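This follows on from our talk about sequence and fold. Please put the record directly below this note.
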Amino acid sequence: MDPIRNPYAPGAGQRPPELAGRDEQLGAFDVVLERVSRGRPERSLVLTGLRGVGKTVLLNALRSAAVRRQWGTGKLEARPDQGLRRPLSSALHQAIRELGHPEREQVDHVLGVLKAFAQRDAGPKATLKEMWNPGIDVAAARGRADSGDIEIDLVELFTDIGGLAQDMGRGIAVFIDEMQDLGADDVSALCAACHELSQSGLPLIVVGAGLPHLPAVLSASKSYSERLFRYQRIDRLSREAADRALTAPAEDEDAAYTDDALAAMYAATGGYPYFIQAYGKAVWDLAPQSPITADDVKVAAPEAEEELAVGFFGSRYERATPGEREYLRAMADVAVEMAVTGQGRIDDIGSVSTADVAIQLAKKPQSLSPARDALLKKGLIYSAERGLIAFTVPHFGRYLRDHA
């Protein structure tokens, strides 16, 4: 098969040639956009799921849908070592520019408020570098969104920006990737601001994406967050959708798969979108001709697995210390033992008990707390329920057993 015509695209956040299995989420978001534009009450949206299920791709697709409706949009990626003010200010600045409000005086006032919000972290003796400027050429406003209390400031800022959008009969959408990495104060402020917007009916929504424990992070910040957001779990694709993700791009290149090949691909990838693209690319490059067969999948599987081992699994494993790696391997061993013996609760995400991991390592649970907490902060594991932990990356346990 001609590698130049290879249609598959394994990459972080890179849109696949066929966005299969996400029609429900895209359709529901179109309804949200229309309702908000008409002044109807609607909740902000949170997407959750493991690594590799396509959260970032879907987040970008939702943003494109908002852009097509002439909304103002901005996007940021949360980082655990960075506060919310600066990246959010850049995202909102872009959203205001996209909105294109015709009244320059009103826009300049809101931009001044935005600039004040962005610069509030800098002290009175801050250097020019510390007085970060998000590219706004108007003077910073005073007395609005600059109190220093992020919760008060964000409510005021969202209110002013939402007013601009309301004037236009459109909306503002802020897209936040890796939302679970926001600091506790920033999460609390974001929830409070969304709560205020929901009561005032202003057309500004937040669309977040993060790991499966993100709802717990939001709930721990504000009890009403469970009613504040519409939560959508993004999971692996069904067999039908996975087949379409492979066959539709192939058909565009006058190629096809046999039924046995599609079955083999689903067995190998588990329906995870990133894996589908990785295996699809490897199989295409190594298959001698169309239609692609199950034998072609078998031949290409080692190359796909090696690519995933280096770029998808290995890069994450390398971030762990020796003690943390020991903890990860123990998690994988406990999961296998549970599957073989049938003892313990086995769920669809492969959760294991922290007590069982301690038994596996022959150590007291308290002594393992530092390693577990560090892995949680690094985003390699998560805890959706007290006493249980799971990998944030699908098939990570299999990688650990085969390579680590």
In short: The radius of gyration is 24 Å.
